[in-house]
Fold:
Amino acid sequence: MREVAGRVLIDAARDAAVHAHAPYSHFGVGAAVLLEDGQIVTGANFENASYGLSLCAETVALATANSQGHFRDIVAIGVIGGKLGKDGSLAGSALVTPCGRCRQIINEAVQLGGRDIDIYCGSADGEDFAHFQASELLPHAFGPADLGIR
Ligand code: THU
Structure:
């Protein structure tokens, strides 16, 4: 069951990566956020000529969920990434797991939502798959709860 949910999210993330704006790294990433009502919200990485301003796919998807009023309703996230083809396809055998900054942003949703979040990562070639809990990727996290925000 968990693997089925993960595959659905990774497929949605792959579709989202078609819209990656990654002319600098040529590395496309897609993320798909599952809400508790079954809706899926997606995002793709969004680079900038001032490289350090680039946004990861996970951050874009989480901010989009927030903009729709659903930041507290997130139950799972799927992530996929790889070398970006001209047609938006992804290539590669490595898993992309959320970067450190994204883990901190995911933790914001964990604490405000009051539940751990499942994170599914799939390789572009479809050969590799992994499941993590957000708390596993960012243990002993500092977050809104430490500032009295719920
Ligand atoms: N990237 C993501 O979108 N998510 C991650 O978890 C890792 C990295 C993006 C940032 C940049 O646009 C490209 O991948 C190469 O680092």
Observations:
- The pocket of tetrahydrodeoxyuridine is lined by residues 22, 25, 27, 29, 45, 47, 54, 56-58, 96, 98-99, 102 (CB under 6 Å).
- The chain has a mean pLDDT of 97.
